[in-house]
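Objective 1b: paired records.
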Amino acid sequence: MKLVDFSPDGDAVGRRLGVVIGQQVHDIGRHAGVTLQDIIGDEALMAALRQYTEAAGEGEAPTWGSETVQTWPLDDVRLFAPLSQPPSLRDFYAFEQHVKTANANRGRPVPQEWYEVPVFYFSNHRAIYHPDDVIPYPTKSEALDYELEVACVISKAGRNINVAEAEDYIFGFMIFNDWSARDIQRQEMRVGLGPAKGKDFASS
């Protein structure tokens, strides 16, 4: 199931939840009155969305309750960041091949600790940008870069979760762009702390 926050006329005030089926956005938010962020943790609404998606995918007339759901061509709507105000944003060092390559470039092996603890840093959850936004970056940087990543969205509170129970806390996954000012990042991390301004200016 593919969920989006969108607006048919491009106005951010009217952004709402949509379900993407094929190349059409089904305007669920117009009937349910919600954005994507509103439904995280709402198991009843998620069950209704799954039922709707299954029925619509099988060719049934798209209805929400007793109302016909309007659809919009995907290319004609404005998409917004699925979660523009997450309560927390943590970027993990999780892809083993990337870790191996990065350490090999520095002439060292992968630390054993990487296999023992989930290492992350807190990124700026107040600097989330939408698709097609112009990304602001530190003015003195001459090495703007981004990493294409996969974000895992957590749907409920937890602490010290067992591996066997981990999937129960996952709402879904989305594409995530981790923006970096590499020259500033390298400079500030020589101090032994960070990343700071080299990383926290934008995510999308």
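Objective 1b, second protein:
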Amino acid sequence: MEMTDLEAIDKLFLDWTEAGRRQDAGALAQMVTEDGEFWAHEAPPLRGREALVVRMTEFYETYDIDQSFEREEIVISGDLAFVRGIEVNRVTVRDDADAPPLEIRQRAFSVLFRGADGAWRFARGMTHKPPEEQPG
């Protein structure tokens, strides 16, 4: 039975999470369009698959990550999808057993394209850390 677009996109997010846990930068790159561009909070833009592999390989040399995504909205129109939600990154320093894990929650917005092969891939993405919650 063929997956619906929503099921295929949900699987893409799960596959991304699993590849990150395995520290498989090459697998991550295959889930991104050739011209993918991503803007992370307080970081330079990441453009293209090759740049993603370089940056993630460097990241994995120092950190382990467990990432999840809490979808708040999805719009699918033909071969284009927009996904908005909260990205949660639980990061630990690999060579420092005393360093406490850090949890980073940030807003995330992604644009996905379905390629000629029928696979959905991340094409654009933006994350931004929300303001600190004010007591009150």
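The mean pLDDT is 94. The longest strand covers residues 63-77.
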